[in-house]
UniProtKB/TrEMBL annotation:
Family: Belongs to the protein-tyrosine phosphatase family. Non-receptor class myotubularin subfamily.
Gene Ontology terms describing biological process: phosphatidylinositol dephosphorylation
Name of this protein: MTMRA protein
InterPro entries: Myotubularin, Myotubularin-like_Pase_dom, Prot-tyrosine_phosphatase-like
Domain Myotubularin phosphatase: residue ranges: 1-129
GO cellular component assignments: cytoplasm; membrane
Binding site for substrate: N88, I89
């Protein structure tokens, strides 16, 4: 995948041929990418959606099992679909534009209450939270 780094961490229990085979199943060939590690053993792994819905469960289970086997405590994988709970890039950009307009174009002579409600309506603080 041209959008992944040259080197990245993968579970040792996944063979190279499995990685190559599975990579074709992900949108943009974006294999799961180990993004962050905590001293308690927790890790954040990002991955793109799987193209073929029929194969999704099998591939997803194989990769999650490999991650679990590679975890020092053999902890189960907790998955969260961030597409459903996070704003998309267009929503973030729109909120940023509204924030800039509020900070640059709006006269601050208005009441603080009105300015704060205008700030809230940009949804910028909600998105960055």
């Amino acid at each position: 995948s041209p959008s992944l780094p040259e080197y990245f961490v993968v579970p040792s229990s996944l063979a190279d041929q499995d990685l190559k085979l599975y990579s074709y199943s992900f949108i943009g060939r974006r294999m799961p990418l180990w993004s962050w590690n905590h001293p308690n053993g927790s890790a954040l792994v990002r991955m793109a959606n799987i193209k073929d819905v029929l194969q999704q469960r099998r591939i997803d289970q194989r990769i999650c099992n490999a991650i679990t086997r590679s975890h020092p405590l053999r902890s189960d994988v907790y998955k969260s679909d961030l597409d459903k709970c996070l704003p998309n890039i267009q929503e973030i950009q729109a909120a940023h534009i509204k924030l800039k307009q509020l900070c640059v174009n709006e006269p601050f002579e208005e009441t603080e209450e009105k300015w704060l409600s205008s700030l809230e309506s940009t949804r910028w603080l909600e998105h960055i939270r």
